[in-house]
TrEMBL record:
One matching Pfam family: Caroten_synth
Presence of keyword Ribosomal protein: no
Keywords: Membrane, Transmembrane, Transmembrane helix
Protein's name in the database: Putative membrane protein
InterPro entries: CruF-like
Record-annotated membrane-spanning stretches: 27-48, 55-76, 96-116, 128-145, 172-190, 202-220, 226-244
Length: 262
């Protein structure tokens, strides 16, 4: 199932990328998010088990929703903003789709970070804290590329604009904080959970490939053309380094070198 969802989600990325020139069947923002979330969930179950996946998803959904709700109500965390009706029904001031969208990005960003910090022990406070810091940075790099275009499309509105393509700089500090909290809490709760491993190195690396494909898609075309350069360096750098590290360990036995499971 993970393979099918991976192929479908990346078809949808391509369909969105070529939409100015070629109209391919698509599912829109809501459908794409749901497909990608399912891919993340199925892959996480295969890699970490049902219990760990349930913990991860619950922490991600709860923290992201609460931070968003407080953020919309107060303007303190991310800056003053509100959601339009384009993303579907809301719970309070936040569309129900938003916590799912956070997980859609949180999972592959975490997998990229796990490759980048391979060698640290996630069972120790120092280890999972380092992992959380890198993962938060990797995911916030994604938002540097994604947020301006999504807000320009009217999915949410920055009430006073901002210095970065209409987005306030505070937003990115809020993203670093939110994602760090998700990763750190999950790391603390998982520190004694036994890890699963698979025999397929390609399967293990699917979320890393997905992050890299997103980076390439944004670098080749964006609603705001200047963001192509941002995508190339901000998303492209961690994606490239992660792919190089995976390639360097490709011939190691899966049980000895499973960077995504350590």
């Amino acid at each position: 199932m993970s393979w099918l969802l991976f192929v479908l989600s990346n078809y949808l990325i391509v369909a969105a990328a070529v939409s100015p020139w070629l109209k391919l069947p698509s599912l829109g923002n809501i459908g794409f998010t749901l497909v990608y979330v399912l891919f993340a969930l199925f892959h996480c179950v295969a890699m970490a088990g049902v219990r760990r996946t349930a913990l991860f998803f619950s922490i991600s959904a709860a923290v992201s929703y609460l931070m968003e709700e407080v953020g919309v109500r107060t303007g303190f965390i991310y800056g003053a903003y509100h959601y339009s009706d384009l993303l579907g029904p809301k719970l309070g001031h936040v569309p129900l789709l938003i916590p799912l969208a956070w997980f859609m990005m949180i999972y592959p960003s975490w997998m990229v970070a796990r490759v980048l910090v391979k060698g640290v022990d996630p069972r120790t406070v120092r280890g999972f804290t380092a992992e959380a810091m890198v993962a938060a940075w990797v995911m916030t790099a994604w938002d540097l590329v994604m947020d301006p275009g999504m807000s320009a499309a009217g999915n949410w509105i920055w009430e006073h604009g901002g210095a970065y393509f209409g987005v306030p700089r505070r937003n990115y500090l809020g993203w670093l904080l939110t994602t760090f909290l998700v990763y750190w809490i999950a790391g603390w709760m998982w520190r004694k959970v036994e890890h699963k491993r698979t025999s397929s190195r390609i399967f293990e690396a699917l979320p890393v490939y997905a992050y890299a494909i997103f980076a390439a898609r944004y670098a080749m075309g964006n609603r705001i053309p200047a963001l192509q350069v941002v995508a190339l360096f901000c998303m492209g750098t961690p994606a490239l380094v992660a792919l190089i590290r995976l390639g360097a360990t490709w011939n190691e036995p899966a049980d000895a070198g499973a960077a995504l499971c350590e």
